[in-house]
Amino acid sequence: MSRLAGATELGGRIALTRGDWLTGRVPAPGRSRAAIVHDFFVQDGGAEAFAVQFSRMLPGSPIYTSFFDAARFEDRIDPSRVHTWPLQRVFGPTAAFRRLLPLYPLWFAALRLDSADLVISSSSAFAKAVRTRPGSIHISYVYTPMRFAWGLDAYLNGASFSPLSRLGAMAMGPLLRRWDIRTARRPDVIVAISETIQQRIRRSWGRESEIIYPPVDVTAMPLAQGPPDGYLLVASRMLAYRRLDLVVGAATRLGRHLVVVGDGPERARLQTMAGPTVEFRGRVDRQTLVDLFEHCQAYVVPGTEDFGIAPIEAMAAGRPVVAYRAGGVTETVVDGVTGVFFDRPSVDSLAEAIERADAIPWIPMALRTHAQQYDTSAFLSAWLRLLKRLGVDPELYTPT
């Protein structure tokens, strides 16, 4: 690809000419020996929390992304470090960011961070595509191979997409899979968030990877001191593949109080099917969520999680997990000790598991002790060992 021409920096962000958008290299603002790349900072999810950890591990390094919501993240990331794509100026950190799917591959494939000796990409889809110079080290922390390329059926099944949107997604699927495989060759080292994702990477990309479990701030979670308040809890983005319909259906059938935290395109459909015992809280602040963990009867994972931060947080609070036996929770939940599994993705199977969990005398401190192995300190220690083993200059990162 040819070098970009005519790039200018405006307000700490890079503005590109029309030719630049398609043809190649995005220069870093000045000489930077390390850089971070993340898909987008629009919503407060697990991937964004992990990217924040990288921003602390590589202090002062520029962060490249598509959209950045400063109002949501400026207390954790200095906005002056963040360099967004041109569409940030047009739309701002829009909630409709998913509709721009065809454009993300163009943007991230055009990023060339030639000045960086170390690049860490934080990728659930696009960030791994960044180009680096020969001799540098590019480590990609992968949350999953692109979900809407490899898991399109699960992504669309039961979702409230229009027929036209479904046809468009199905037509793009083969193109996205080829792009995903091709750009997966760019990182020097791939780190998966779980064994589940490691296997998915091997199956989809034909590459081997290491595993570093994501960070969970276990020490910041208060341990429950009294009996639970009897409600079930689930906190999730309301996307069809998360299978919130199962827990809403099970709570409605059992007449159990269920608190649903989160928002997303499936909220209206879920509210329509919910009975009077199901309470939708929408987005809540962190302290409210912590209080809900502390006082719930059990936390429910109705779908397949790539890893699952919230189940760890529930266990850190001393509360058990009721989970579908698939994905990352099979690596973090011990059946009968820290939670209960159900084996069929059905309302009946989940309802039976909830009743089994009710009958077990859980020991809060035992659940918390189990959760401590996933604390943020373990995540940082694993990354520092990896960087040292790869021979990365210690001046580029910090243990705090």
Question: Outline of this structure?
Answer:
The chain is of the alpha/beta class and 400 residues long.
Give your account of this protein's structure.
The chain has 400 residues and is an alpha/beta fold. 37% of the residues lie in helices and 16% in strands. The protein has 17 helices and 17 strands. Strands 5-4-3-7-9-10-11 form a 7-stranded parallel β-sheet. Strands 14-13-12-15-16-17 form a 6-stranded parallel β-sheet, with helices on both faces. A two-stranded antiparallel ribbon has the order 1-2. Helix 2 links the parallel strand 3 and strand 4. Helix 13 packs across helix 16. The longest helix is centred in the middle third of the chain and has 21 residues. The radius of gyration is 21 Å and the shape is globular. The chain starts with 7 loop residues before the first strand and ends in an 11-residue tail after the last helix. 44% of the residues are buried. The N terminus is likely disordered.
